[in-house]
Task: structure prediction
Amino acid sequence: MTNSNRQGLTRPFSLIHVIQKQLQVSSLPLRLWVSVVAFFLLSLKATDAISQTFPTPDYFRRVWSPQAIPETIAGPEKLRDYVISGRLRLTLEDAIRLTLLNNTEVKLNQLQYEGVKYSVLRAYQPFDPFLFSSFNANRQTTPTISQLEGAPTLSNLSQNSFFSLSRLFETGTRGQVSFNANRQSNNSIFTLFNPSLATSGTVQLTQPLLRNRGFFPNRAPIVIAQRNVKRSLADFEASVNDSLFRAVDQYWTVIQTRENLKVLRNSLELAEAFYKQNKRMLELGALPPLDIYRSESQVATRRVNVIQSEYNLKQVEDALRRTLGADLDPTVSPLDLDLVEPVEPGGDLLAIDSAEGLARAMQKRPELEAVRQQLANDDTSIKLAHHNLQPDLSLQGFYTTSGRGGNQLDPNTLPPIVISQGGLGDALRQLRSFDFPTYGFSVQLRLPVKDRGVQADLGNALVGKRRSLYQLRSLEQAVTLEVRNAVHQLEQSKLSISASRIARDLTQKNLEAEQRKYELGSQTLFFVLEAQTQLVQAELSLVQAQLGYQRAVAAVQTATGELLEKHRVQITAD
Result:
């Protein structure tokens, strides 16, 4: 045990000693009673489980001030910081940052995690102290039937005040400190004290001896709630990982669609130039009239492809705007997107094998951490259910001291006269003197013949543990397959880039050759148009391969659980 822990344990006892010294308590029963009460009150102040702040001003402010009810939510943030020259200019890191700030799904998942955090506060509720007080007044007037009742018509006024402070400790001990004061006054001539004041103070402790004894069964709900928070944090991290992967994929989709549109526009310009050349040759009589339709048809087909690609670009840009939250700002929403990341990968291409990627995934995937937290909760639930099979045996002890006060009457005189005056102070002095103690203890045993409910809880806990084990195995299988597919996709994309680049260069040379043959008259128009189509397909394939590699890198980072780390995103518990 560290010195700080020793100080934390000895501090309440030193404060009790100070209280006893200030009260100048000398008698052993009174010292014991004050010690129990003082320790009980100090424990309420020292524990971290107390969520109430009574009676501080903050308590009354929270309880009586009207709670502000949100009617609106904050709008998108930081979007206008990226507006340059009338366009929304974004790098990939900028898109990720805006996704974290403005994406609606990310905000919803974050609120779900924040809601789970309050379950820990609720788990502490059984240990919150409870303060109870009451005051009752009762006037009773009844006709009498005997002279022994002391008055023809008996009138009695009873006033009772009660105060108690109780709480459950994390050891299972339940303690209660109570104070009771009762004032009685009547018109009976046989009353010795009128009015009379009776006070009593009681300390009562109940300690379970089997079921619910110790820290484990009482703190188990708190431990489970804390693990649920960790599991929710892992689920939130997994959802953020998916949202960022979606943002990255949409970012590259917009770039790919934009580059495809460039290729199609260039092919349209090439077809239009070739059509103008053929039209000039037709005017000079160097081209048969029917051949011009083939060239004109090619221009029309490529114009249709350009139009379709333009509207496809609008759709993927709108999807990215929604992910970034740009559609929520009417000023930014109509602006064109300027995505500045280069298409061609820079530097050395990523290299990773399946075994290495799988090892990283098993260590870093948040989904696996969430299931591990659930497995730990299952173990706790099984132990708790088995613990609840024990008999309910408890020991209860109490100590009560009483006092009496009031105006003492002489019953030998009619009407009775007051021979000594007293009040609440007399009753409290007698209460402190312990002249009238009452104490005792009891042992209670509750032994159900058949505890089917607890047996069912234990069975459900065992089934839940097996279910979690199967979920872990299923998730590990899914992660393994996802990592392997991502690695295979990465290897394929790297090979596709090299092959597509060679194919593009060869189709370019082939087009130049067919164009030269056509100009020399040794080749027909059909082969030139076919070579142009092949070049367009080769350029589109190269763009697809380059963007496929960018997607494959993001897929590998997502599968191995490193996407957030690569983009310097940290998710921590508040």
Observations:
- The beta strands are 83-84, 87-90, 130-143, 153-168, 174-186, 193-208, 336-339, 392-410, 417-420, 437-446.
- The chain is about 60% helix and 20% strand.
